[in-house]
Each structure stands twice: as structure tokens, then as C-alpha cells.
């Protein structure tokens, strides 16, 4: 583009996203026509644009920096962010996308992009944010996802990725905070190199076909706030013999093949608000002190376990509980009147157990719980 000023820069400048700093080599001649031709190539690979968003807006008579979904660095006028989320676009990604060499953020979420990811994406070493969720990308996850030393956020969720998570994928992603590979068709084990991403806070691998065990070293990820592994085929014991996950707020490992007892060490996960370990092959008893320190718990699901004990009194210390599902647990004993202490409760399911109650107790429950699912 002739009208774009050429900058000779030896600067470091902050760009739109927090902590995003792009440093320039000195005396770089800035050429925005590269970005323009890369985006034109992308537009040419969009085969359906029912809202005519790119069709009408991405006009070569204006600078790419004015195009919808495109953000440029304020001084160097290079594309730093591409956000085409929710635009009903159908198409593929052309190799030229790898020429957007200043790109820090790529968001194509909720479109119908398909095909495989071009290897040229691996040239975009400045990427910190990659959101490709809710599309139809397929084939295996490429092996070059270790090319982004600054990557903080990666989501490939709800696509058609298949095969194993590539080994080495997480070797060189030291800044990764959020990972979502959920709702694909991934098989194989949870890769051990994930444990090298010490800054991980959110892990979502739900609804794949992952197997193997959950390595106990997961407890070394001390920043972890959310772990969703539900709806896979993960086996072995629940390895929560670690005291370090003090920030863990959400744990969902339901619908897997975990065996053995519920570890009493869960009681050390004192930040938990969501705990769902339902639909595994857990047996034994609910540890009596399990809930002693889980005072923030809001949503508890132990259903479809073979627990065969009575409800521990420590459960009634969870004053924030809103949803409690203990259905199909082979629980016995009586329903303690302290259930009435859980004044936030709006859903309680105790069906298919052998819990004894009496009319009075159940009435009390009804009074205290505003929404009642079933009491068996
Ligand atoms: C493209 O969209 C942007 C942002 O919505 C707007 O500012 C600009 O005027 C549009 N350009 C054209 C040519 O429609
Ligand atoms: C992208 O656009 C959507 C709206 O379509 C917006 O919600 C989101 O915050 C934008 N930003 C990024 C970084 O993706
Ligand atoms: C996906 O995008 C379409 C079109 O903008 C929108 O109607 C729909 O609500 C979006 N879906 C999600 C899950 O955000
Ligand atoms: C952009 O990318 C394509 C394909 O990767 C390449 O052939 C082309 O030379 C690149 N450079 C420019 C300036 O478009
Ligand atoms: C999932 O992957 C397996 C191979 O690992 C394949 O046989 C199967 O068809 C895939 N399923 C879907 C829905 O793509
Ligand atoms: C996890 O931490 C323990 C000590 O807390 C250490 O011995 C072990 O090597 C660590 N494992 C990994 C995979 O980082
Ligand atoms: C846990 O995962 C299962 C299976 O994917 C899902 O049905 C359930 O709603 C999740 N539990 C919570 C508390 O979000
Ligand atoms: C809970 O953590 C403390 C250290 O914070 C440790 O001494 C104790 O053994 C842990 N309890 C369980 C049941 O793991
Ligand atoms: C339940 O509430 C009553 C009355 O407020 C209180 O005396 C009792 O200690 C509570 N029980 C538990 C297990 O929290």
C-alpha cells in the first residue's frame, strides 16, 4: 500500500492485549502489502460468507487496519490481531496466513473452517492467543505447536482433531496458561510434557477418547484452577495425594474409568467450587472428613459410584452447596436433619440409594430446597 508510511523503528511497543510487547529489529522496512495479500488470500479461501462481512468490508480501497476483525499495531501498522469469531464463515486456511508475521492473536472461533492447519502457521512466533474452537478442522494436531514460545492461550476445542496429542507439543510452551483440546476425537495418553507448562491454570481435555492414567505429577501444576477430563477413558486411581493444588476450583473427571477409593486428600483442595467424580468405578467409603475444609463447594456430583456408606456429616459444612447429586451410589444410613442447613441448595438428587428417611425429614428438605429433583 503506497499510502502507508514506512517506519524505521528500533522501538518496543505495547499492543492491544495485556502484556503484549512486540519488539522490532532495528531498521526494519515495514511492508504492509504482505499483510494485505495474506488476508486477501484468506478471503479468497472463504467459500461462504452469508452475512457478506468480508465481501463488503475487506475492500482493498482501505487499509487492512480498517477491516473488520483486523487490528494493527498503532505505530507500525502491521496486523497484530485477527478476530473473525462468530461470522458464519466457511472455508480453509491458506498458507499465506503464515505471512502475518506480527500476529499475536488469532481468533476464528465458531465458524465452519475446515481442512488441516497449514504448517506456515508455525512461522507466527509472536502468537500469544490461538482460538480455533468450534470449527471443523480435522486430521491430527500438527507437531509444530511448540513453535510459539509466547503462547498463553490455546483452544482447538470442538473440532474434528483425531489421533494422539503429539509428543513434544508442550516442550516449549512455558507461558501456556489455558489449554482446551476438549470435544475432539483424540486418543492415547495425557502427554507427560504437559507438566512442563508450569503456568497452566486451565486444562480442558473433556470428551475425547483419552486413556492411560492421570499422572500424579499433575499436582506439580500449582497454578491450576480448572481441570476438566470428563468423558474419556482414563484409568487407574485418582492421584490426589498432593497438597499443592490450593488454587483448584473446578475438577471434573466424571465418565472415565477411575478405580479405587475416593482419596481423603481431596479434602486439601480447599478452593474447590465444582467437584464431579461421578460415573467412574469408585468404591469404598466417602472419607468421613472429606468435606471438612471444602467450604466453597457449590456443585458436588458423586453419582454412579459404588460407595456403600452413609452421608458423612462433614458434608453439611459445605454451606455454599447449590447442587448435590448423590444418586446411584448405594448409599445407606439415614438422611441427617442437617441437610436443612444447606440453605443454598436448589437441586438435590439422592435417587437409587438405600437412604432411610422419614416424612418429617423429607418435609424439612422440601422447605429448605427451592428446586427439588428427586429423593429416593
Ligand atoms: C469495515 O468495518 C469497520 C468496523 O466495523 C468499519 O469501521 C469500516 O468503515 C468498514 N469498512 C467498509 C469499507 O465497509
Ligand atoms: C473477538 O470478537 C468477539 C466478538 O465476536 C469478542 O467477544 C472477543 O472478545 C474478541 N476478542 C478476542 C481477543 O478474540
Ligand atoms: C456462533 O455464531 C453465530 C453467528 O454469529 C451465533 O448466532 C451463535 O450464537 C454463535 N454460537 C456460539 C456458541 O457462540
Ligand atoms: C507469503 O506466503 C506464501 C505461501 O506461504 C509465499 O509463497 C509468499 O512468497 C509469501 N510472501 C508474500 C510477500 O506474500
Ligand atoms: C475417531 O478416530 C478414530 C481413529 O482413531 C476413527 O476410527 C473414528 O472414525 C473417529 N471418529 C470420528 C467421529 O471422527
Ligand atoms: C514434581 O514435584 C516433585 C516434588 O514436589 C518432584 O520431585 C518431581 O520431580 C516433579 N515432577 C515433575 C514431572 O515435574
Ligand atoms: C462434568 O462432565 C460431565 C460429562 O462431560 C457433564 O455432563 C457434567 O455436567 C460436568 N459436571 C459439572 C459439574 O459441570
Ligand atoms: C493436607 O495438606 C497438609 C499440608 O498443607 C498436609 O500436612 C496434610 O497431610 C494434607 N492432608 C491430606 C489428607 O493430604
Ligand atoms: C446446622 O445448623 C444448626 C442450627 O443453625 C447448628 O446448630 C448445627 O451445628 C449445624 N450443623 C452442621 C453440621 O453444620
UniProtKB/TrEMBL annotation:
It is a single-pass type I membrane protein. Residues 1-23 form the signal peptide. The keyword Glycoprotein applies. GO terms for molecular function: ATP binding. SMART domains: LRR_TYP. Keywords: ATP-binding, Glycoprotein, Leucine-rich repeat, Membrane, Nucleotide-binding, Receptor, Repeat, Signal, Transmembrane, Transmembrane helix. It holds the Pfam family LRRNT_2. It comes from the Eukaryota. It is found in: Membrane. GO terms for cellular component: membrane. InterPro entries: Leu-rich_rpt, Leu-rich_rpt_typical-subtyp, LRR_dom_sf, LRR_N_plant-typ, LRRC69/RLP. Its main location: membrane. Residues 34-72 form the Leucine-rich repeat-containing N-terminal plant-type domain. This is Leucine-rich repeat-containing N-terminal plant-type domain-containing protein.
